[in-house]
Amino acid sequence: MIRLIPGARARLFPDEIDAMFRCRALTFYERLGWDVIVKDGYERDRFDDENPLYVVSIDPVSGQYWGSLRLLPTTGPNMLRDVFPYLLKDGEVIESATIWESSRICAISVDGQPERARGGVNYVLAELLVGIGDVAILAGLTKIVSVFDARIFRVLKSAGCNPQIIGRPRRIGGTMAYAGLFDMGEPFQHAVRKGLGIASSVLAPDAKELTFQ
Amino acid sequence: MTDVLSGKLHCTLEEILERIEADIGLTHISYVRFVAHSDTRLTDVITTYSNGWQERYSEKNYLEIDPIIAYGSTAVLPFDWDELKNDDPTIVAFFADAIANDVGRNGMSIPVRNRSGSFSLVSLTSDHSSEDWIEYKNRNIAKLNLMATLIDSAASFSRKNPTFVARLSETERECLNWFARGRNHNEIAESLGLTTSDVELYLDTARHKLSCININQAVAVAIATGAIAPESLK
After folding, report:
1. pLDDT digit string (tens) for B125-138?
2. Chain B residues closer than 8 Å to A211 by CB
3. Is the pLDDT of residue A7 over 70?
4. How many beta-carbon pairs below 8 A join chains A and B?
5. Given strand A53-58, what is the order of strands in its sheet?
6. Phi/psi at A35 (nearest 5 deg)?
7. What share of chain B has pLDDT > 70, as a percent?
8. pLDDT per position as a tens digit, A85-128
9. Are A189 and A135 contacting, i.e. CB atoms less than 8 angstroms apart?
10. Ramachandran region of residue A119, left (φ > 0), alpha (ψ -120 to 50) or beta?
11. A58, B135, B172, B212: which is deepest, by most CB within 10 A?
12. Quick one: pLDDT band at residue B73, thresholds 50, 70, 90?
């Protein structure tokens, strides 16, 4: 089940957010050896201060954290513009009110999670991808842009996503980095849901949390 | 909307918003810029609400309790004002007073982020029936997003924030050039060996970089500011 948490409201979800920053440290620093900074067990960067939208997969019964990704509007600060501009051709910029950027997708493996989704994709990653589609409908997005590595590229292909690779892929550290655009139209929604065998919305009934401080 | 921008460059942003809302079937449009996210202090307000409502809002100190401002300063997703209504008597009274002052029966707000990282909120109200309003939002949400971003750019521009000549990529420049020479998307795609949706994307990013409301205006601004060279149009 997916919960949507704006960074500015993170303190209302201390357990999910704590687990997310730890999962990011384990995934990107320890397991993949990316050049990211880990402090007190958290992988956190300056984009986490820009009020991103976290798409968080949780156990529908216990509420335990399963996985997450981060969305940033491309009209504001984002990774492709500010960290990886060299992946694009000279002067090329992705910046539109209807394109958001996805980054930091990760998941933990715990007992009680459903089996792999159709296509052999890890269930939590599958749910997160479907969650992006649900957010696109809520927010009126036409495309998602993302920088991803060969590992995620394989997951995306298995999930029926067919990103349009933009700019020129580059070797960063030990892996290839790609910048890709995902069309959020009907074909994406259909292909991903069909590819993963998840038919309906994955958003929690109260996915958008609106309580006041 | 083209009409609004075609001639009168001397009208105020409030007047432009009034023309836009009349054109697209909304009751009011208003824009606020926050000091920072999660900080409800405002640095900029542009609105088409009646003077009566603006005075009452300030007299009653509604900024302190306005749930749209409180939630909007932390929001990332667009939200309908209905989502904010609850049993709190202060909130109930606030919305009742707003409706009594012709703010509009329905409302939604779109958070906007810009290049310098600032946080704004564009609010739209309407007097549609509930069903029509839901239909209207679903059909137009992507366009309303684009419009909200343009209003934010216009507000920054009119407040004399630093402006600059947009740096277009080679492909964006080429697409805009062909467009300026009267070619349609398909023809441009063919000439440049791109897909039609690539061409749309390049034109849209060019338009966005130039802070324009449509491609026609983008061509004009690109030529006027030197982002594309007039001689390349021959």
Report:
1. 999 999 999 999 99
2. none
3. yes
4. 103
5. A164-172, A175-183, A143-149, A99-107, A65-73, A53-58, A2-6, A203-208
6. -85, 70
7. 92
8. 889 987 788 999 999 999 999 999 988 888 887 778 888 998 99
9. no
10. left
11. B172
12. very high
Count the neighbouring beta carbons within 10 Å of the beta carbon of residue A147: 21
Residues in chain A: 213
CA A68 to chain centre: 6
Strands B119-126 and B106-113 turn out to be antiparallel
Tokens linked to A177: 């980095």
Question: What is the C-alpha separation between B38 and B76, in angstroms, rounded?
Answer: 11
Q: What are the chain B neighbours of A206 within 8 Å (beta carbons)? A: none
Element holding B47 (H helix, E strand): strand B39-47
Closest CB from A4, A95, A97 relative to B145: A97
Q: What is the pLDDT of residue B155?
A: 87
Q: ipTM of the predicted structure? A: 0.90
Q: Mean pLDDT throughout B203-209?
A: 89
Rounded to an integer, what distance in angstroms lies between the CA atom of residue A150 and that of residue B219? 39
Minimal Cβ distance to B74: which of A9, A95, A138: A9
Bridge pairing between strands A143-149 and A99-107? parallel
CB-nearest partner of B142 from A9, A76, A98: A98
Ranges of H-type helices in chain B: 2-6, 13-24, 51-59, 67-72, 89-100, 130-158, 170-180, 185-192, 196-209, 215-225
Q: Is the pLDDT of residue B90 over 70?
A: yes
Contact flag A98-B146 (C-beta cutoff 8 Å): yes
| Distance (Å) from the alpha carbon of A92 to chain B's nearest alpha carbon | 5
Nearest partner of B104 among B178, B50, B34, B42, judged by Cα: B50
pLDDT tens for B146-183 read 999 999 988 887 554 434 567 888 899 999 999 988 89
B74 close to A (CB below 8 A):
yes
Q: Are A21 and A49 in contact (CB under 8 A)?
A: no
Percent of chain A at pLDDT above 70? 96
